[in-house]
Large ribosomal subunit protein bL28 (Anaerobutyricum soehngenii), 61 residues
Amino acid sequence: MARCAICDKGAHFGIKVSHSHRRSNKMWKSNIKSVRVKVNGASKKMYVCTSCLRSGKVERA
């Protein structure tokens, strides 16, 4: 599973509980995209979450 290169956000795990209260394992995946990013003047491909893209922590190439 991919992780964000900026904030290290990844998948979250927990327990899904149905209406009848039956419990099963669940995985929530973060919205992570493969993006070309400027790093020290050169472009590099990284995995970045969309919240980091929207907040401007990353400059696209």
Remarks:
- The chain has a mean pLDDT of 95.
- Helices lie at 50-55.
- The chain has one domain: 12-55.
